[in-house]
Amino acid sequence: MKICLTIMCCLAMSCTVCLAGQDEQRLYGRLDMLIARQADIEAEKMRHIEGMVQILKDATLTDAERYAVNDRLYNEYSTLKYDSAFSYLRQNIALAEKMGDRWRATRSRLSMAHILAVAGLFGEAEKALAAIDTSRLEGDVLVGYYKQLNELNLFKSEFASGTPFNDGYHKNMQNYRRLLIANADRGSYDYVSVLADYRAYQGNIDSAIQMLLEYLPALKPGDRRYSIQTSQLAFFYGCKGDMGRKKQYLLLSAISDQAGCIREENSLRELASMLFDEGDYERAYKYLNVSINNANSYGTRLRNTQASMLMPKILAGYNVMKETQHRRMQTLMVCISVIAVMLVVALIAVYMLLKRYRRSNQTVAYVNGRLEEAVGELRRSNAMMKEGNRIKEEYIGRFMELASVLIDKAESYRKLANRYAKEHDMKSLYALIKSSAAFNESTSLFYGNFDSAFLRIYPNFVDKVNELLSDECKITPKGERLTTELRILALIRLGITDNHKIAGILRSSITTVYTYRSKLKARSVVKDDFERCVASIDSWQEADAASVTAVEAPG
């Protein structure tokens, strides 16, 4: 029975991890999108808050009703703006005392202790807790009291990280955690979260992770509790040395913070620190700036202090990255210049060869004209030679045109990059280097020339290939352009059968080429001899020359 339960728990844990282990780049995209929409998300939340503020303008509200509205406003502002949350809590403490409601006054003082601790005002938070009569606390209020004491020591520990005082704060936290665990309802968020921290501090990290993974589906992204619990999971995985899962849960926590307009955040700064250690300086710098701006907007001294300690490292790394990019750009410029010179030399050589071929063609045409009447058999050979020369001229002409276009593009690219470098416009230069537009355009030009030239030589190639395929698997080309499948077969017809070479010419992966070839064989009516049949498809010259001979043959 115990073995079955263990297996079921492991399966549940694996499923949860799989859900959390979403594609890293997709998580980055989601986070970046939410950061870009940060102003819109906050504006929407402020419109919601404004509706509650309007309710307070009703002079007929009782003190209890006013307290309830203030409490809702505090909950909205508690993660958005410290001073507004503080203001509504002060009003509620005064209202509770006016009504003589000890329970409401205690709840508001506990909330006051929370936001004061979050803002780094530890002394004031301790005063707020000291004003509470602990002898009469019970139930959820007692749990909340222990929770705030634990939280206060947690923030003190973060602030005192690396100092001799840190161990004392951790011991205090463990004491308050024991008290909270003893009084909280089993299965509640506070119970699970604090028990996980308690076990992790004792060294039982796997048990803590399992508890949080089992409870996490009960929470929703955008809720502060979801952000805290995913941050806890990231910390625990970091303690185990599992940096992959640590990053995933930091991303999930940061996404939740941005979606819920939570400005009192920690995960985005931790993620920036981790990215800096990995060498991703640009993204680290971006996320740290967002974290600092959010901390400034909320008004928390603790987070600003933590971020300021990280900023010099990220700035130094960012400068190193820029210097490295500058050196790479200079190397690239030298390479482009060398390639341009080589292309000019190649053009001159091609031009000389073209002149030589043209002179040879004229001589052959003269000799063929003299022998045409005497030797009928040579007519076919002469026709084939002329068509061969036309193919050569077409390929040479296309090569010259393509080479000329590429030289012009390379020269324009070099001039533009040189101008940006002279003007020290690093942003434009980086955008130019990063852009793939020139590469895509050159690739499209290459494919167009290849398709056009090949179809002029083998106009019946597509029909011949379709004869080798089953009826439901015929290939229809895109107008005068070949599909990727037809290009692979065209290269096989030209004698290029190595997957590495085909992948290099078509700018595809070896796996893609292998998959296409396998699928084409599977769809063929001659599976074992499919590629051999493709390689033996006749060119249009041969077919045309044969027809000419048949017409001119005597009898």
Can you characterise this structure?
- The chain is mainly α.
- Among the domains are: 322-435; 457-555, Arc Repressor Mutant, subunit A (Orthogonal Bundle), CATH 1.10.10.
- 80% of the residues lie in helices and 0% in strands.
- The protein has 25 helices and no strands.
- It has helices at 2-20, 24-36, 38-56, 63-77, 82-99, 102-118, 122-130, 139-159, 166-183, 189-201, 205-215, 224-240, 243-259, 267-278, 281-298, 301-371, 377-422, 426-434, 437-457, 461-467, 484-493, 499-506, 510-523, 530-535, 540-552.
- α15 packs antiparallel against α16.
- The longest helix has 71 residues, at 301-371.
- The protein is elongated and about 125 Å long.
- The model is unreliable at 1-21 and 541-555 (pLDDT under 50).
By helix and strand content, what is the structural category? Answer: mainly alpha
Describe the global form.
elongated
* Mean pLDDT over the full residue set: 81
- Characterize the main sheet: none
Q: How many separate helices?
A: 25
Instruction: Please give the radius of gyration in angstroms.
Output: 37 Å
The number of strands is 0
Tell me what portion of residues adopts beta-strand conformation: under 5%
Helicity, as a percent range: over 70%
Compute the separation of the termini in Å.
96 Å
Q: What is the element string, with H for helices and E for strands?
A: HHHHHHHHHHHHHHHHHHHHHHHHH
Instruction: List the uncertain runs.
Output: 1-21, 541-555
